Amino acid sequence: MKEIIPITPSTGGPVAPSDIVGRNEEIDLFWSKLDKQGIALFAERRFGKSSILRKMAIEGREGFITIYKHIEGISSPENAVAVLLDRVKEMKLIDEGAFKKLENFYNKTTEIVDEVQGIKFKKLEYSWQKQLFYLFKKLIEKHKDKKIVIMLDEFSIFLDKLNKDVASTVIGFFRNITFEEEFKNIRFVYCGSIGIDLVLDKIKNDGHNIGDPLNHMFKHELQPFTENNAKYFGKCLNLGCELDMHEELIEQICERSNNIPYFIDIVFDKISKAKEATQKSINDAFEEILDDTKGKESIKHFYDRIEGFYPNYKVSVYILNFVSKSAQVVIESEIANNVLTNTTETDRIEINEEIERLKNDGYLFRIMKDGERVYDFKYTLLKSWWKRNKAF
Prior knowledge:
Layout: H1 24-34, E1 39-42, H2 49-59, E2 64-70, H3 77-90, H4 96-106, E3 115-116, E4 119-120, H5 127-142, E5 147-153, H6 155-161, H7 164-177, E6 186-192, H8 196-205, E7 218-221, H9 227-240, H10 247-256, H11 261-274, H12 279-291, H13 301-309, H14 313-324, E8 330-331, H15 332-342, H16 348-360, E9 364-369, E10 372-377, H17 380-389
Parallel strand pairs: 1-6, 1-7, 2-5, 5-6
Antiparallel strand pairs: 3-4, 8-10, 9-10
Helix pairs in contact: 3-5, 4-5, 6-8, 9-10, 9-11, 11-12, 13-14, 14-15, 14-17, 15-16
């Protein structure tokens, strides 16, 4: 039996690598994939994406050099390159002498620097492209026979905030760099709480022909814990919070949290502060989560990402409103008919596309029943929150 270790709630803050449990299978899978290709990792906020990447970066793996950087809030590719260089410098991945050469190179203008030590830059239009090209070359020279993994956390949000012309150039350059023979050991990990496909669709809809810039990458949607791993995490929190909670109550917390790590964590935090591990304290904790409309408990993110990124935002809201009020799975045709009673500014094709988008983005699940496509919310916690706070 796996040893229960004491873990205290992180309530959304950074988690110590030793406290990141229940994700060994995913981590082994990611290392295996990184041996051959990059990864596009996505899931809603608070599923543990960043924790997994930080754990991988800190603990490392033989044959890899791993550089992790959170880039949400960075406003340009030039700034992204700058923080990446700072991280490389902090990790001392390149000799100090090479850093000085890099800094000198970074201070020169694009017009002056056409070629540096045999690197063909003339096909590169922007200074940040030349800077990355040169930086990657130095990393490869220093760490021969190792894979260089560049983990860009919240990459999709960073990409979305850029001018669409610039975003198109960034995603194209990153893809092309991995096809250069001399950079065959470079791997990118794009991580995001907004599905990168949504951002790429916005770039395409703006008139940019970017093709499929992820066709060389392993796409992975991070799921909640398995039932066993969720219970193990709950037992670790129970020990760390010194609650002495019965196993049945731990299992109930996990089930009501849909095995999502963050919500298990936050419920234990609330119970710990209440100083009583009872059915009432559990119910009170979930009531606080379901009543939250300000984003304090992170569940509002599910609504915000639709409002900010979905091309047919209102149609998606109508769909989720209708499904949230049903006590059972809903036939696709019934969903469509309900949407059409709310708006005439759509049709069945667009409705079906939005239903599929919601399914692919983790809001709905689909099964076949009596030859019909039927749907329900993927997470009962979200369904209850949506019905309580958003449905009309």
